[in-house]
Amino acid sequence: MEEDEKSKATIVSVISPRTPSILPSTGDIVTAKVTVVNSRLVQCIILCVGPSVLVRPYRGILKKEDIKSTDKDRIDPYKCFRPGDVILARVLPMTEIHWYHLSTAENELGVVIATAAGSPQGVSMVPISWSEMQCPKTLVKEPRKVARVIPENINQSLFPVNCNQEDKENEKE
């Protein structure tokens, strides 16, 4: 509490001990984890807005027609995303109260971290084209809507150090 000297009014301020919650807004680039994929849409949880980690995750939905900018009617969401994939997406204007509407219809948006089915735990796939990723250990290839990653859009603090870094260091020796 403090008193305003001019008007002699008492001003009451409340400061939260928790960090302020950031909400995704239209046009923001978000980092999200895919939870459900079906023939019409992809559901995910939004973990970051830009470089800021959210206090709590929000639900996002990526409709089939918002996955790519071309061939919207022939897209198979399962050939673009799998549960567990980490994606970059842009927030579209909200149309539903409890879901953020997302889009990956830009070259810079899509899958940034993926694990192949049957790959060893913690081994991330490597992009080999704009529509395919490959496991460096098993050499299994899987279709994905791969993002052309711009490093400043990824918050590295969310992800543990990859096992592949140890392998690269061992190769140098």
TrEMBL record:
Occurrences of domain Exosome complex component CSL4 C-terminal (ranges): 57-92
Keyword Cytoplasm carried by entry: yes
Gene3D superfamilies: Nucleic acid-binding proteins (2.40.50.140)
Record's keyword terms, sorted: Cytoplasm, Exosome
Subcellular location as annotated: Nucleus, Nucleolus
One Pfam family matching this protein: EXOSC1
Alphabetized InterPro entries for the sequence: Csl4, EXOSC1_C, NA-bd_OB-fold
Signal peptide annotation: none
PANTHER family (UniProt xref): 3'-5' EXORIBONUCLEASE CSL4-RELATED (PTHR12686), EXOSOME COMPLEX COMPONENT CSL4 (PTHR12686:SF8)
Protein name in UniProt: Exosome complex component CSL4 C-terminal domain-containing protein
